[in-house]
Amino acid sequence: DEMDVDTIWQDGSFVDWDDATVHVLTHGLHYGSGIFEGVRCYDTENGPAIFRWEEHLDRFYQSGQPYDMELPYSREELTEATLELLRREGLESCYIRPVAFYGYGSLGVSPKDNPVNVAIAAWPWGAYLGEEALERGVEVMISSWRKHASSQIPTNAKTTGLYVNSLLAGEEARRNGYTEAIVLNKEGNVAEGPGENIFLVRDGEIYTPGLSESILDGITRNSVIELARERGYTVHDRATISRGELNTADELFFTGTAAEVTPIRKVDNVVIGNGSRGPVTEELQQAFFDLVERRTDAHDEWFTYV
Ligand code: PMP
């Protein structure tokens, strides 16, 4: 295949990339009843290592809970399948995509007789918002679409169906010439990006919306909060951030498995701070890349070596 990967783990076995298919009457395809993860493996000084695999597995199982979706594989089985996939394909730096969904069976909205299918794919994937974005920052648009409220749908579960909102926000932004969107919650406060959490720096302190603001409990978010606190920063991790505060921020940045730590240099064409990567963002971005590429011994417990 074009990604130079030959196999995908699907329901307990390794199958050819082109054969990893589903029936068109798959429940998850019709109703968005799937859950997924996005995980990165880094080519580190000590060999390939998966960043925070255990936390991603925790979230994967937890995402199924509101939907009564019990995964028919243990943590050990999913871990072994993933490690075996990476070794087989000789993948070093890559993105890992576990997915589980209600499969082919009955077609009522309530799953009955539907199996829970599980697959894990992996492929090389560079900087999500572009290599240049990591240094220069991205220009973002505040989406006209609001994020679904956590009272309407569990926003802390990484459910496939939720991502049509991300698609709308991201595509609206790109149609308008921006790289990415910022999505406000139902109250009109800042929630997150379509696939990223957001951080704000003001007067040397760091703010990020809390879980009650309808965000995904990002694993990169949690890691960056910890790295920042270790460096002496005050981090307000249950902040409510109004739209207007974005414009007066000293710095803004996104975090996410795909986006890593990406500075935001403009919001709706208003320049943020000095209009490029700010000093706090740069320090935390450097700390993040030093960590994930293992140029430090810190937090070795966050890595699963392939
Ligand atoms: N918010 C949303 C909506 C996301 O899809 C993601 C990506 N999983 C994130 C935040 C960042 O989460 P993480 O750092 O765990 O990748």
What is the strand and helix layout of this fold?
Layout: E1 7-10, E2 13-16, H1 27-31, E3 34-36, E4 39-44, E5 47-51, H2 53-64, H3 75-89, E6 94-102, E7 116-123, H4 131-136, E8 138-142, H5 163-175, E9 180-184, E10 190-192, E11 197-202, E12 205-209, H6 219-230, E13 235-239, H7 243-247, E14 251-256, E15 260-267, E16 270-271, H8 279-292, E17 303-305
Parallel strand pairs: 8-9, 8-15, 12-13
Antiparallel strand pairs: 1-2, 1-7, 3-6, 4-5, 4-6, 5-17, 6-7, 9-10, 11-12, 11-14, 14-15, 15-16
What does this structure look like?
A hairpin with a 3-residue loop joins strand 14 (251-256) and strand 15 (260-267). The chain has two domains: 7-123, Aminotransferase class 4, branched-chain amino acid transferase, N-terminal domain (D-amino Acid Aminotransferase, Chain A, domain 1, 2-Layer Sandwich), CATH 3.30.470; 131-292, D-amino Acid Aminotransferase, subunit A, domain 2 (D-amino Acid Aminotransferase, Chain A, domain 2, Alpha-Beta Barrel), CATH 3.20.10.10. Strands 8, 9, 10, 11, 12, 13, 14, 15 and 16 form a nine-stranded mixed beta sheet that branches. It has eight helices and 17 strands. The protein has 306 residues and is of the alpha+beta class. The structure holds 4'-deoxy-4'-aminopyridoxal-5'-phosphate.
